[in-house]
Protein backbone atom coordinates (compact mmCIF):
# COMPACT_ATOMS: atom_id res chain seq x y z
CA UNK A 1 0.00 0.00 0.00
CA UNK A 2 3.03 2.26 0.08
CA UNK A 3 3.14 2.13 -3.70
CA UNK A 4 1.94 5.44 -5.24
CA UNK A 5 0.40 3.43 -8.10
CA UNK A 6 -1.90 1.71 -5.60
CA UNK A 7 -2.98 5.06 -4.16
CA UNK A 8 -3.71 6.45 -7.65
CA UNK A 9 -5.69 3.33 -8.54
CA UNK A 10 -7.57 3.48 -5.25
CA UNK A 11 -8.47 7.16 -5.69
CA UNK A 12 -9.65 6.45 -9.25
CA UNK A 13 -11.82 3.64 -7.86
CA UNK A 14 -13.24 6.00 -5.21
CA UNK A 15 -14.08 8.60 -7.87
CA UNK A 16 -15.76 5.96 -10.05
CA UNK A 17 -17.65 4.55 -7.04
CA UNK A 18 -18.90 7.98 -5.92
CA UNK A 19 -19.90 8.82 -9.49
CA UNK A 20 -21.80 5.56 -9.81
CA UNK A 21 -23.59 6.15 -6.52
CA UNK A 22 -24.41 9.70 -7.62
CA UNK A 23 -25.85 8.54 -10.93
CA UNK A 24 -27.94 5.89 -9.19
CA UNK A 25 -29.12 8.43 -6.62
CA UNK A 26 -30.18 10.92 -9.30
CA UNK A 27 -32.02 8.25 -11.26
CA UNK A 28 -33.52 6.03 -8.59
CA UNK A 29 -34.07 8.42 -5.66
CA UNK A 30 -34.50 11.80 -7.32
CA UNK A 31 -36.41 10.31 -10.25
CA UNK A 32 -34.38 12.05 -12.98
CA UNK A 33 -34.57 9.94 -16.11
CA UNK A 34 -31.20 9.71 -17.88
CA UNK A 35 -30.96 10.86 -21.47
CA UNK A 36 -29.22 8.85 -24.19
CA UNK A 37 -25.84 10.46 -23.56
CA UNK A 38 -26.20 9.88 -19.83
CA UNK A 39 -26.71 6.20 -20.55
CA UNK A 40 -23.53 6.06 -22.65
CA UNK A 41 -21.59 7.70 -19.84
CA UNK A 42 -23.05 5.23 -17.33
CA UNK A 43 -21.98 2.37 -19.61
CA UNK A 44 -18.43 3.68 -19.34
CA UNK A 45 -18.45 4.59 -15.60
CA UNK A 46 -20.26 1.70 -13.92
CA UNK A 47 -17.83 -1.07 -15.00
CA UNK A 48 -14.90 1.02 -13.75
CA UNK A 49 -15.96 0.23 -10.18
CA UNK A 50 -15.58 -3.49 -10.85
CA UNK A 51 -12.47 -3.34 -13.07
CA UNK A 52 -10.55 -1.03 -10.75
CA UNK A 53 -11.81 -2.79 -7.63
CA UNK A 54 -10.52 -6.13 -8.90
CA UNK A 55 -7.24 -4.50 -9.87
CA UNK A 56 -6.88 -3.24 -6.31
CA UNK A 57 -7.75 -6.58 -4.73
CA UNK A 58 -5.39 -8.52 -6.97
CA UNK A 59 -2.66 -5.84 -7.00
CA UNK A 60 -2.85 -5.73 -10.79
CA UNK A 61 -1.90 -2.26 -11.94
CA UNK A 62 -2.58 -3.20 -15.55
CA UNK A 63 -6.23 -2.59 -14.66
CA UNK A 64 -5.37 1.10 -15.03
CA UNK A 65 -4.91 0.50 -18.75
CA UNK A 66 -8.28 -1.25 -18.99
CA UNK A 67 -9.87 1.52 -16.97
CA UNK A 68 -8.48 4.12 -19.35
CA UNK A 69 -10.15 2.24 -22.21
CA UNK A 70 -13.46 3.04 -20.49
CA UNK A 71 -12.70 6.46 -18.98
CA UNK A 72 -11.41 8.18 -22.11
CA UNK A 73 -14.41 7.39 -24.35
CA UNK A 74 -16.75 8.17 -21.45
CA UNK A 75 -15.01 11.50 -21.01
CA UNK A 76 -15.36 12.29 -24.71
CA UNK A 77 -19.09 11.62 -24.53
CA UNK A 78 -19.22 13.88 -21.46
CA UNK A 79 -17.46 16.67 -23.40
CA UNK A 80 -20.01 16.37 -26.21
CA UNK A 81 -22.83 16.31 -23.64
CA UNK A 82 -21.53 19.51 -22.02
CA UNK A 83 -21.28 21.20 -25.41
CA UNK A 84 -24.88 20.24 -26.13
CA UNK A 85 -26.00 21.46 -22.73
CA UNK A 86 -24.28 24.84 -23.19
CA UNK A 87 -25.69 25.27 -26.69
CA UNK A 88 -22.34 25.06 -28.50
CA UNK A 89 -23.68 22.25 -30.70
CA UNK A 90 -26.71 22.88 -32.93
CA UNK A 91 -29.96 21.41 -31.62
CA UNK A 92 -30.28 19.38 -34.81
CA UNK A 93 -27.32 17.28 -33.62
CA UNK A 94 -28.95 16.31 -30.32
CA UNK A 95 -29.04 12.49 -30.26
CA UNK A 96 -31.99 12.28 -27.87
CA UNK A 97 -35.16 10.78 -29.24
CA UNK A 98 -38.09 10.04 -26.99
CA UNK A 99 -37.67 10.67 -23.30
CA UNK A 100 -35.54 13.26 -21.54
CA UNK A 101 -33.45 15.67 -23.59
CA UNK A 102 -29.75 16.39 -23.17
CA UNK A 103 -30.39 20.10 -23.41
CA UNK A 104 -33.00 20.55 -20.68
CA UNK A 105 -32.24 23.04 -17.93
CA UNK A 106 -33.37 20.63 -15.20
CA UNK A 107 -30.11 18.69 -15.52
CA UNK A 108 -28.53 20.51 -12.59
CA UNK A 109 -27.50 19.68 -9.04
CA UNK A 110 -27.97 22.33 -6.36
CA UNK A 111 -29.73 24.44 -8.97
CA UNK A 112 -26.63 25.53 -10.88
CA UNK A 113 -24.13 22.68 -11.43
CA UNK A 114 -24.93 20.85 -14.69
CA UNK A 115 -24.97 17.07 -14.38
CA UNK A 116 -23.01 16.71 -17.66
CA UNK A 117 -20.26 18.87 -16.11
CA UNK A 118 -20.15 16.64 -13.03
CA UNK A 119 -19.74 13.64 -15.31
CA UNK A 120 -16.95 15.33 -17.24
CA UNK A 121 -15.11 16.22 -14.04
CA UNK A 122 -15.47 12.65 -12.76
CA UNK A 123 -14.12 11.15 -15.98
CA UNK A 124 -11.20 13.62 -15.99
CA UNK A 125 -10.30 12.76 -12.39
CA UNK A 126 -10.49 9.04 -13.09
CA UNK A 127 -8.48 9.32 -16.32
CA UNK A 128 -5.69 11.43 -14.77
CA UNK A 129 -5.37 9.06 -11.82
CA UNK A 130 -5.41 5.98 -14.05
CA UNK A 131 -2.82 7.47 -16.36
CA UNK A 132 -0.66 8.13 -13.31
CA UNK A 133 -1.03 4.52 -12.13
CA UNK A 134 -0.44 3.16 -15.63
CA UNK A 135 2.61 5.33 -16.23
CA UNK A 136 4.15 3.98 -13.04
CA UNK A 137 3.83 0.41 -14.34
CA UNK A 138 5.65 1.19 -17.58
CA UNK A 139 8.93 2.21 -15.94
Automatic annotation (TrEMBL):
<keyword id="KW-0143">Chaperone</keyword>
<keyword id="KW-0812">Transmembrane</keyword>
<keyword id="KW-0676">Redox-active center</keyword>
<protein>
    <submittedName>
        <fullName>Disulfide bond formation protein B</fullName>
    </submittedName>
</protein>
<keyword id="KW-1015">Disulfide bond</keyword>
<keyword id="KW-1133">Transmembrane helix</keyword>
<keyword id="KW-0249">Electron transport</keyword>
<keyword id="KW-0472">Membrane</keyword>
<dbReference type="Pfam" id="PF02600">
    <property type="entry name" value="DsbB"/>
</dbReference>
<keyword id="KW-0560">Oxidoreductase</keyword>
<feature type="transmembrane region" description="Helical">
    <location>
        <begin position="109"/>
        <end position="134"/>
    </location>
</feature>
<dbReference type="InterPro" id="IPR003752">
    <property type="entry name" value="DiS_bond_form_DsbB/BdbC"/>
</dbReference>
<feature type="transmembrane region" description="Helical">
    <location>
        <begin position="7"/>
        <end position="27"/>
    </location>
</feature>
<dbReference type="InterPro" id="IPR023380">
    <property type="entry name" value="DsbB-like_sf"/>
</dbReference>
<keyword id="KW-0813">Transport</keyword>
<dbReference type="InterPro" id="IPR012187">
    <property type="entry name" value="Disulphide_bond_form_BdbC"/>
</dbReference>
<feature type="transmembrane region" description="Helical">
    <location>
        <begin position="66"/>
        <end position="89"/>
    </location>
</feature>
<comment type="similarity">
    <text>Belongs to the DsbB family. BdbC subfamily.</text>
</comment>
<feature type="transmembrane region" description="Helical">
    <location>
        <begin position="39"/>
        <end position="59"/>
    </location>
</feature>
Amino acid sequence: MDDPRWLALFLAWVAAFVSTLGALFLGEVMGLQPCVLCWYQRIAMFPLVIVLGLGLVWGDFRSARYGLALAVPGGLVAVYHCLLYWGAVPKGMVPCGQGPSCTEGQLTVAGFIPIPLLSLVAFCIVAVLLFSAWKGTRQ
